[in-house]
Every structure is written in structure tokens, then in C-alpha cells.
Amino acid sequence: MATSQPAPLPVQKRAWDTRERILAAAVACLAEDGYAATTTSRIQERAGVSRGSLLHQFPSRDDLLIAAVQHLAVQRAGQVDVPEVAGTIDDAVEQIWLTFHGPLFTAALQLWVAAQHNPHLAAALRPPEHELGRHIRELITGLFGPERVAHPGFADLAPVLLASMRGVALTYTFEPRDHRSDPNLAAWKRLAHRILDG
């Protein structure tokens, strides 16, 4: 007795799934291998797609990496959910710090550095990064809560936290360690308390 075969996916759905696999592979390659080693051949191999499928979706490496930038921005934006109810100041600082770690931040960092010498990539990077910045501001408001955000000192605190966390996170590229025990974390919490509890 012949067994029934599952119905094939619609062409549009198959194309979308292929695109998602390619973009996910590009982000993983950026995070693990770096920008220079993220070749179309390496991405094709990792995604498990044919050369023709990859070239049909992305005719050039720049096209692929620009699409990966946008894909990455969406992923990073969804990395932390904005809570309905604000937690403690310490919780808020810890959650913000978490966004500067993991493969998504590492992949983004590779693209930021590459964009310095690639105007096409830099131009493509700006809009999704601006959108991500908007999401991060919403995230910070949700984490700290409207009452703390309305504090006169909050407008100074938020950019200082983001800039200093980003700077410290960059040092992890050459000195890997457990980010949960970073001594700066306690300093950021003290600073937030000093400003918001005063």
C-alpha cells in the first residue's frame, strides 16, 4: 500500500524559508567567523542551499550582507521583551547589559567595523540601526518604568549607560569573560540608584 506524501510547500513559502536559512547562516558566520571569512560559499554551505538558490535570492555578497543587516536588526530588537510592569533599577540595568552580549551583538559589531571601509554597507546599516535605537529607547522606558523615566536625571543616565555598556562590551572581543560578573555592572547600578533615588 502506497504511503501518502506530504503536500509540497507553496513556491512562495519555500522561497521565504530558503531566504530565512540564508540570512540566519550569514548572521551565524559573521558572529563566529568574522566579516572577512563570511564568504558566499561559506554561507551557502552553512545554510544547506544550492549556489543557484543563494544567487537567485542575493546576486552579490553585499546584497546578502545588507539583507543580513536588516535581518539582524529585527532579531536584536526582539532579543529582549519590553515588560508590562517595570522591575527594580538593578533588574533594568542587568537587562540592558544583556543586550550587548551574544552572537547577535557580535555579528552587528563585525558589520559596524566593515562599514567603515564600505560606504554601500554603511548606508544600508544606518536605517535598521536607527530603528533598533528607537526600540532600545522603548525597552529602556519599559524596564525603568514611566515614573523613573520622568525623573529629571534620567535623560542623562540613559545615554551614559548605553554608551559605557557598549564600550565595555567591545573589550570582550579580545578578553572573553563572564559578563554577569563584570565589575562595571555594580558601578552602573550604583550610578542609576544615585540619580533615580535622589
> What's the overall average pLDDT, rounded?
86
Structural class: mainly alpha
Shape: elongated
Helix content: over 70%
What is the number of beta strands?
0
- Low-confidence runs (pLDDT<50, min 5 residues)? none
Order of helices and strands: HHHHHHHHHH
Radius of gyration: 20 Å
Separation of the first and last Cα atoms: 78 Å
Main pleated-sheet profile: none
**Percent of residues in beta strands:** under 5%
Count up the helices.
10
Summarize the structure.
By secondary structure, the protein is an all-alpha fold.
Helix and strand arrangement:
Layout: H1 11-33, H2 40-47, H3 51-57, H4 61-77, H5 89-98, H6 103-115, H7 119-144, H8 146-149, H9 154-170, H10 183-196
Helix pairs in contact: 1-2, 1-4, 1-6, 4-6, 4-7, 5-7, 5-10, 6-7, 9-10
Mind explaining what this structure looks like?
It is elongated and about 60 Å long. The chain contains ten helices and no strands. It is mostly helical and 198 residues long. The termini are far apart. Helix 5 packs across helix 10. The mean pLDDT is 86.
Features:
single chain; 198 residues; mainly alpha; 10 helices; elongated
